[in-house]
Amino acid sequence: MKRLLFVFMIFGWITFLADAQEVRSPDENVRAVFEVKDSIPYYSIFYKDREIISSGRLGLDLITDEFEKQGIKIAADRYSLKDGFEISKIENSEFEEVWEPVWGENSEILNHYQEMEVDLYQPKANRHIIIRFRVFNEGVGFRYEFPQQENLNFFNIKEELTTFPLSGDHQAFWLPGDYNTEEYLTTSSLLSEVRSILEKGELHVGENYNLYDNLGILAVQAPLMMKTADGLYINIHEAALIDYSAIQLELDDENFILSTHLAPDPLGTKGFLQADCRSPWRTIMVSDDARDILASDMILNLNEPSAYEDVSWIKPVKYIGVWWEMFVKGSTWSYSDLENTRLGETDYTTVTPNTTHAANNENVRRYIDFAATHGIDQVLVEGWNIGWEDWIGHGKEEVFDFVTPYPDFDVNALQQYAMEKGVRIMMHHETSASATNYERRLDTAYQFMEDHHYTAVKTGYVGYPIPRGEWRSGQWMNNHYVRVIKKAAEHKISLNSHEASRPTGLSRTFPNWLAQESARGTEFEAMGGNSPAHTCILPFTRLVGGPMDYTPGIFQARFDYYHPDNSNRIHTTLAKQLALYVTMYSPLQMAADLPENYERFLDAFQFIKDVAVDWDQSWYLEAEPGEYITAARKAKGKEEWFIGAITDENPREATIDFHFLPAAREFTATIYEDGADADWDSNPMSYRIRTIKVTNKTVLKQKLAPGGGCAISVK
Amino acid sequence: MKRLLFVFMIFGWITFLADAQEVRSPDENVRAVFEVKDSIPYYSIFYKDREIISSGRLGLDLITDEFEKQGIKIAADRYSLKDGFEISKIENSEFEEVWEPVWGENSEILNHYQEMEVDLYQPKANRHIIIRFRVFNEGVGFRYEFPQQENLNFFNIKEELTTFPLSGDHQAFWLPGDYNTEEYLTTSSLLSEVRSILEKGELHVGENYNLYDNLGILAVQAPLMMKTADGLYINIHEAALIDYSAIQLELDDENFILSTHLAPDPLGTKGFLQADCRSPWRTIMVSDDARDILASDMILNLNEPSAYEDVSWIKPVKYIGVWWEMFVKGSTWSYSDLENTRLGETDYTTVTPNTTHAANNENVRRYIDFAATHGIDQVLVEGWNIGWEDWIGHGKEEVFDFVTPYPDFDVNALQQYAMEKGVRIMMHHETSASATNYERRLDTAYQFMEDHHYTAVKTGYVGYPIPRGEWRSGQWMNNHYVRVIKKAAEHKISLNSHEASRPTGLSRTFPNWLAQESARGTEFEAMGGNSPAHTCILPFTRLVGGPMDYTPGIFQARFDYYHPDNSNRIHTTLAKQLALYVTMYSPLQMAADLPENYERFLDAFQFIKDVAVDWDQSWYLEAEPGEYITAARKAKGKEEWFIGAITDENPREATIDFHFLPAAREFTATIYEDGADADWDSNPMSYRIRTIKVTNKTVLKQKLAPGGGCAISVK
After folding, report:
1. Active-site positions of B?
2. SS3 (DSSP) at A389
3. B558-570 pLDDT tens trace
4. How far apart (Å, rounded) are the C-alpha atoms in residues A572 and A231?
5. What is the pLDDT of residues A245-295, one digit of tens each?
6. Cβ–Cβ contact A337 with B under 8 A
7. Which of A33, A101, A398, A498 could form a disulfide with A44 if both were Cys (CB 3.0 to 4.6 A apart)?
8. Based on C-alpha coordinates, what's the Rg of chain A?
9. pTM recorded for the entire structure
10. How far, rounded to the nearest angstrom, does the alpha carbon of residue B71 sit from its chain's CA centroid?
11. ω before B401 within 30° of 0 (cis)?
12. In a 3-state reduction of DSSP, which class is residue B302?
């Protein structure tokens, strides 16, 4: 049970009808200004008196005229919410609390902001909406609130009109706009360069998706990380995405204005809303120190507290999996080479096995044995259940039933075998984005998990969703994910969702949502590769919304080790793979490589065994997006610290200041570092382990190889 | 358990590569001819050597080019299935069986046909498809079959290309093409007149749907009943609609060619198919005697036998309902006047009731008492569950949870009260077409029914479906209905689905599907009205696919009885309301009027109490579509016969030949007839009851008033 440590609120100084109203962060560095001009609301954001956002428009375009697409009529409102507003009331207040997350980078989180609640009246429609600003030291969140009232009950969004007019042509770390996937490599360029880069069509997604043209407009995705020419770091994202479509950011690359663009439903409607309701928070983080972006809890703070009374069953997890061998060893999810299967009809007991099926009893026992030997909590097993032969690419709806194993996977015996060794098998539910099929089988599937002692599930949503025409980032699918997480909680199941919409801090509200993928993970190293800079960017982009199941820990860097024709490889050094367990915060961490590879490098594997998955406190020591990150964390409830330092393709010297250690005591630090000749490209597996003594006065100058890193454990 | 009485099969004379192949009905009156011309397959149908269908095209257009809509790619096949065919093999055979339906118009059904199986080879794609013809004495069914093979596994339909070139400008009984509803009044006109009638826009649906333009083409619905200038009756429909979209019939009104037009999914795809699979049967019934259309079991015979081993729990049902008072007395489904409710959040215990909520304990007990007094099996209660305040028109997905009653409806107490009196309450599940919501709650909803002793449910699908962009007659929704019926069977629940896709004989396979609405029922008498001819048409159109829950039995004909401003009224006489229990065959029959009205006319109500809902045998004595129907039926397992005769707006003399009675015995016939001055318009409630003695030699000349009818019970 989360304990509320401290709450402080001041209610509220009210101002009426001034031309422009403002609210400042507790440290007064960040300032949000609101005004209504020509009956349209606008806001501006300042950081240390530099204008970050200049008169961004606020409002929503609703479906007003009788809207019809493909012969289907959509209920229409008489008036839109785009103009005709006057300020009815503005109320400022302050809020301060310290709360304890179920798991996290810190065991206590300060939630301190100044709030401005703007009540707007729209005379022609005789109704009110509220725009609420919360200004933190790290930035601003604002949202639209739609109180239930006589003239506002059900309404449908044509488009949200929020804009973010920027102060110039910033450097941006961006993914191309796409309603369905975030699994791109991040491109770093000036905003003015986005169009030409997209037009070259050189971006690589690894799945056979469209590039950029499923929106039909020039757009990038949120979270968007930017750096101004004068050294400010700005991050635009959203928080608490519930019952709403995810935003894409349409880019006006002449005026450097971003605007919200919502994923549509199949009929083109961008949101079915029912008052009382609210939009997600639109978030703008800003600092002149990149580390503040990483350290910020603003997005978590903008989410609601845990929806569950009892959270004692929710545990961080370290796991291995019958998984990586499908990428590098030719193992298969499928049991046979059938081209065509049908749930309930295909009789697998009479089918010729393909002999490459990884999720077989013998192999799974081998993983369980390894997990038991090395104290790993769980073993993910993918491909355990029938349906993989024709699971994707056919628009098939009834792909999996989530309860029937292949003949060579004995559910009861294996889970029993695992539990006797103190290990759990982790469930896997690939849905192939057939959300309708998953939902109608969810009660059965989760009861099956409960009956068989599974406590965690990895879900997958590869492909285009069913309901057909919906998008993975659209309102319907976002509601689906929330339905799933709530249903999982009823069965005390924790979730790791892959290919779902990118997170917005909902793990505060649903702490059994341990992690998501929703970005390009390690698997892409086996499918074209990630860049050495990739993990120096993700914490500034994807991870601001919540933990990622990045699946680090690949020791065997070149895949021609498995097959001479396989030219794929990891784009980091081995030491950087270790450092990722610290720099890529997650309460769910996979040791993704094959057990046999870990057995070849047990000294390096020791770090993965040791590293915590839950923390009392975290410190970002150094950070520059796309270049380097150095983070230190104290294990929860233990006198143990872990440090990770990573760099992009450039060698670097990290400066690790051990100031976070208790004063006047000496500790032993075990350093897992790049070998002298290590290089992600030419010599990735060269590493060295050494120990030094450290105190809180120690400042370590640590060399990182090109694409390299360093992991340190302190006890 | 259905017992197979008699099966006779002859396998099979094979002919190769002749120019044209044919197959004749057992009585040789009907003949289907098949040929391939210019590599395209065609068929023709003859009845007594008159050509009914002249060279109808066969084939399907598949999605072949990479198909993309709204940025979503659909898997494509390299070749279509529209041409490039040659005959590989043709095999003829004969089949004859007698089978016993679980319930029906007859307790034994003869299934006797000659079959022609055409194996077509498509060299360029190196694959086979099969077109299978079955020729009965009453007509022809044919379908496409897609055997699973190396070059045919998953494929997607762009359009089915089947055409029905007619021999002339027939009189047609038609509904305008519409993917979402059949709740129109049938128009009777020449095919050449359809366009101008539609363009006048005078059709009335009663719900706020589009007329005709959701297809964007000139089309009518199946079942389509026609009469040729030379007196042939032709009915075009489909049988065994499973995992496929329902057909609309596109009309070429210059050449009188109908062609299949399938309901699309939101992306425009008209079918996701996986071999081994098949299309529904395309059916053409033909006779020179209209009674043969009504008596035909061809569509049932083209469906598969019961999917269930145990059918002992499936029972025909006679019921009353807390329902009609919502249409005529101002009672409401909703408990309050809230404009806006939310499942799980709205606290009804603190809400002000509207005092018009019909499903309250006291009122429901009154209906139960009435049912118990008069031997009625079940009492439907609509509006028992929360959510009705804002159930429609808002695109709301989570409308109902199907398990939570309003505060004034005590589920346990009422069901207990009913069962003690030998009555069951019938469950009601309005889904507001939010099929996703229904599916995800189905396990819980049906378990709730089982726990509370409900054995039957009426489902409703008012509105546009969710998944958004799907149609009630599209493949996805058709699969939904089948999922629901199967799930219901797991809980021994029988189903009466309203607003679902019109039936195609699936009640043979799923005999717990007692009835559907899927046409304009009695409720429309309270919303604009039906025509006096309406029920003289429906048995030739809607009912050829299966029973309809038409809800007859309205005694109080004029609704100004309830409120002086209510100008709605029943468009029949009272006696005709009784006759409908015989002429509108259904194993589910409602006594739809208010108990207090039946108490005013207990002598007439006696017929509703007496009339059977299951039959040993049925005889259609007289029939002309749109004009009159006289039917007689023998109650199952009883020496009781019931006769119904109805007419359109014209007075008529029905000729009732009692030849079906056992020879050499005399019976008492109770005749419920129109009063001498009865007239649907001026004096609808005038009726008379008399008894006569009858033998199997009796031929009764019975006068029917304008819009009138006559019901007779014989014991």
Report:
1. 523
2. helix
3. 999 999 999 999 9
4. 28
5. 999 999 999 999 999 999 999 988 999 999 999 999 999 999 999 999 999
6. no
7. A33
8. 25
9. 0.95
10. 38
11. no
12. coil
